[in-house]
Amino acid sequence: MLPGKKYATLISVNTAVMLAVVKLIGGAATGSVSVLASAVDSILDVGSSTVNYFAIRQSEQPPDNDHRYGHAKFESLASLIQAGVITLSGLYILYEAYRRFESGRIVKSVEGGIWVMLFSLVVTFALVIFLRKVAKSENSSILKTESLHYEIDLLTGAGVLLGLVVVKYTGINAVDPFISVLIALKTVYSALVLGKEVSEDLVDKALDVEDLSKIRGVLKRYNCVIVGWHKLRTRKAGAEKFADLHVQVNRHLSVEDAHMIADMIENEISETLGGADVQIHIEPCEDKCAHKACALCDTEIRNEINRLKSK
């Protein structure tokens, strides 16, 4: 059984602390700017993973008087902060690479740097696999962000290792800061993309096309007992999804039957979207409605409802 979100972020924090210490010692000993840049990135990982831990704790709190929709957006907010941290990390790496180009300092111990980066790559790879599995199991946007962050670290670490190998076999020390520049540009780009995605949750962007298609598919199944639907609104907060819409039914239906139809549709949409919060407002159809659902008598509608329930 996989651990929960909070435990997963604690593992991230402890792993980042260990990697930061190893890289700082290795970077100082070898004189490699790319290893030092990777160490700085790991230090920032400690901060962002810690923020994520407290954000997850807060997001799991039940709704209260001040937060009727719950606290799930704390996940999105933490992810946005993390995107900012990643951006700063990339800019710092650029600055350090520029300083190395200007100073012309050489890498003192290439072999030491190679061993440091090999160790960090193995540990980071294991962490990425772990975070991916927990993120999928928990359907957590913040853990997906955390996993992406460490995937970027994995790629940048591979770049650092490649640069050190090239320095070792060619003696061209300029490769080290050059690799750092490439890493920095990739880091900043990934952070901007991540920030855009998270911002969409914070401004209540509609669910993606796939989820909207699933909702329409459920509503289509109920065409035999509903007249129509409109005013569909969807949004996402952290790992939670929300949807509300208006559904028109036969104006002569009893309140009990109309409520039963609404409950059935809400439950099916919620299940289809992985536990979404769904609210339906029932409306009567027009006086002279020609829809087939309005041509049915109460008994026939009851039969249709029972048929749908039995599926």
TrEMBL record:
Localization in the cell: Membrane
- Which key words are in the record? Membrane, Transmembrane, Transmembrane helix, Transport
The cross-references to SUPFAM superfamilies, in alphabetical order and at most eight, read: Cation efflux protein cytoplasmic domain-like (SSF160240), Cation efflux protein transmembrane domain-like (SSF161111)
For this UniProt entry, what's an example GO CC term?
A: plasma membrane
Transmembrane spans:
7-29, 77-94, 114-131
Question: Pfam family of this protein, just one?
Answer: ZT_dimer
- Could you tell me which residue ranges the Cation efflux protein cytoplasmic domain spans? 208-285
GO annotation terms (biological process): intracellular zinc ion homeostasis
Q: Please list the GO terms describing molecular function.
A: cadmium ion transmembrane transporter activity; ferrous iron transmembrane transporter activity; zinc efflux antiporter activity
Q: Which family does it belong to?
A: Belongs to the cation diffusion facilitator (CDF) transporter (TC 2.A.4) family.
Please report the name of this protein according to its UniProt entry.
Cation transporter
